[in-house]
Amino acid sequence: MSGKVLTITSGKGGVGKSTSSANIALGLALSGKKVVTIDLDIGLRNLDMILGLENRIVYDVVNIVEKVCKLNQALIKDKRTDNMFLIAAAQTRDKSAVSAQQITNLTNDLKKDFDYIILDSPAGIESGFKNAMTPADEVIIITTPEISAVRDADRVIGILEANTKKDVSLIINRINPRLVKKGDMMSKDDVLQVLSIPLIGVVPEDDNIVSYTNIGEPSILHKESDSGLAYKNIVKRILGEDISFMEITEEKKGFLQSIINFFKE
Amino acid sequence: MEKVAIKGKNFLGFELEINIDKIDEIKKELELVLASSSHFLQNTLLTLKLNETNKILSNDILKFLKDKNIYINAVVVADKKGCNADIPVIETKNMHLLAEKQDKQIATYRGNVRNGQTIRADGDLVITGNVNSNSYIYATGNIFVLGKLNGIPHAGYGGNNDAIIFAFALNPPQIRIGDFITRSPEEGVSLRNIKGVLPEVAYINDNNIMINTYEEWLRLKD
Fold first, then answer.
1. d(CA B133, CA B123)
2. What is the ipTM of this complex?
3. Which of A114, A166, B132, B182 might form a disulfide with B209, Cβ 3.0–4.6 angstroms?
4. What was the pLDDT predicted at B192?
5. What is the CATH number of domain A4-264?
6. What is the pTM of this model?
7. What is the C-alpha separation between B119 and B129, in angstroms, rounded?
8. Residue of A nearest to B190 (CA)
9. Domain B4-101 adopts which CATH fold?
10. Please, what is the average pLDDT of chain A?
11. Is B193 on the interface with A (CB under 8 A)?
């Protein structure tokens, strides 16, 4: 087996890299692929919490590269599916604890046993970003429809275009149809005009994400969740299916809700 | 007028202009200029511009500069008579003729210029894509952006105040042409403003950077 390394990055922090990594990893695993997710945000880990695997961490990625433990010992099996494993980030160290070469060696080892290796990149364009980029076969850029996030994404794309020839695709996260309609938020097309890279998914704003994160259950596990549906479509596109993009429109409101909103605004 | 000035006006590169007449004072002023920019001057094409009274000192000045590892390509004066420099002497009135004979260089950049990137070109620069925010583009000649310009352009880099900037949507936070700089109006840029796709031209008129639509600019030019 020769797996694919998928790096998820953004430039700006807080746009949903870890949430997207968790959802995509679980989605691929639930589609029958063998997946391992590596949290490279060393020192500020939270992918383990989003996946609800916090209490199972014994060894982490720094322990592997420093040969404190065997690779298998640091693979944390997911509690919902047998197909997904997590390698957690060390919390007591920082980004300089590993090198790009060490991460590349690690992913090369993992490629033998897994279909997809998902790297959750830290924010920024410093060493942690380079660690996550060097081994990547494909890069997914996450942005929100805010000018600051789009500009940072543009910077990251520029760095990737200048230095490598990797496949880059885009996820626009937290789009709010009501604000787009009012003209207060960039639309999908506005973002694409600036970034001009292939789009792989649009995820609507979802108030439930906060509680899903708190309980460690990514939205892809929730059937009724709009963002979960968007991530399911993204997973299908990663697997090569041709799925049309979800029309993200304003949610339908009852008469009473319209009146309440009228007074709110 | 500055006693000694570095300008970038002609096609032969940068011009070192001397406006004082006493050799001792010239040397003193040159020392000051060299203190801050000797590295730059050692690595660039330079001409020396002299006026009617100091042109007889040309060889003294050239020797002084040569001792500092700065080499001059040509001396520019209004009238050749009385200037006996060892290197080519060009009269000011012939500079334009020479410049026109020179084949114009055009550099082309395909694709988007992204945040954090810098493009430099000698001569005219054509960019077939968008120039995104927080990027910088420099050209010694004109700049043509066949897309949206949101980064910072500097046309006529080095002092060519005749350069223009053309873009399908001119929206940079600053515009720099030759020796001039201007910034965008302070009013908040709303999302709708970004969407305009009218071709526009920035140019210098009466020591001010002006922005006009392409059509209006063509009309004014004639």
1. 23
2. 0.78
3. B182
4. 44
5. 3.40.50.300
6. 0.72
7. 13
8. A184
9. Alpha-Beta Plaits (3.30.70)
10. 91
11. no
